[in-house]
Specification:
291 residues, alpha+beta, 8 helices, 23% strand, disordered N terminus
Length: 291
């Protein structure tokens, strides 16, 4: 779940990025840019986040508010004010460096720029998500179309933007044969299995569980429908990180030879041949002089 609400998140993210662009534009007048984007700021922000991750890893994440750790927010990492502020500091540092990389872009810094941009997108998307992740549970009965699911966070039924009709369920394969119907009337036969969810826009449909009626020999599938509007943005950010790794390798000086000698190697070999030839000529002249 994102740290901010649905409609406010996108506006807050845009204002946040515009604020950082303004800080970078006034970098010659303000020392704030140097304080937030310098090497010390990077080290401090990364250290704080890693330290908090260690604390959260050692603290039970049950959302309790009974103890001091619960009051300080250490029992719910996603809603902890301390952790959100630490991520905000890290996102600010990375985004300011990203803006500078884009402003002073050169092809030799393509890898660094893509790495900063990808990490910045991941951090900003995590802080200012355009909508909270929705997790809903649907019990699909055989041959009964259904488009309602139980929202686990609000404890109420929600209407899905698609309709599912269970055709068959395989206990051995733990998979369901389903007819998917979209609002425009288009339908298609899909298969939903463990680790192979169905994708409908920003929705993911997972095979969660099943119910069995031994007397009738029928099965009902339990699907987990997850709405994550930032999934595509995060996927783009991950691709940027892959591009950055490839660019760093390419511009680091690694160039495949493919069985051919480079011009510098040919030049060095030619110079060595000439020096060897001059040396042999000198020795022959020396022998002739002695004779």
């Amino acid at each position: 779940m994102s740290a901010f609400g649905h409609s406010f998140g996108l506006v807050a993210a845009l204002l946040y990025v515009c604020l950082l662009v303004g800080i970078y534009a006034l970098r010659d007048r303000w020392q704030l840019h140097r304080l937030l984007s310098g090497r010390k700021a990077c080290i401090i922000s990364i250290t704080i986040v890693l330290f908090l991750l260690l604390i959260f890893g050692l603290t039970p994440q049950d959302g309790s508010r009974d103890s001091i750790s619960g009051v300080l927010g250490f029992r719910d990492m996603s809603l902890s004010p301390i952790f959100i502020l630490a991520l905000l500091l890290l996102a600010t540092t990375v985004t300011l460096n990203t803006i500078e990389d884009i402003h002073r872009f050169t092809r030799h810094r393509l890898g660094v720029t893509c790495a900063h941009l990808g990490l910045s997108v991941i951090l900003v998307a995590g802080l200012f998500g355009t909508g909270d992740t929705v997790q809903a549970r649907m019990i699909a009965m055989p041959n009964e179309p259904d488009r309602q699911a139980w929202n686990e966070s609000t404890d109420e039924y929600i209407k899905l933007p698609f309709e599912l009709t269970l055709k068959d369920f395989s206990v051995h394969k733990y998979s369901s044969e389903v007819t998917l119907t979209l609002p425009d009337g288009r339908s298609s036969e899909i298969k939903i299995a463990v680790n192979h969810p169905a994708k409908v826009g920003s929705w993911r449909i997972y095979q969660s569980d099943y119910l069995s009626d031994t007397e009738r020999g029928e099965f009902a599938s339990i699907f987990k429908c997850v709405y994550s509007p930032m999934s595509e943005v995060l996927r783009i950010a991950l691709w940027l990180l892959l591009v950055s790794a490839a660019a760093m390798v390419f511009f680091s000086g690694f160039k495949p030879r493919f069985g051919k000698e480079s011009s510098s190697e040919k030049k060095s070999l030619g110079q060595s041949d000439l020096s060897a030839r001059d040396c042999s000529i000198g020795k022959s002249k020396e022998k002739e002089g002695r004779l």
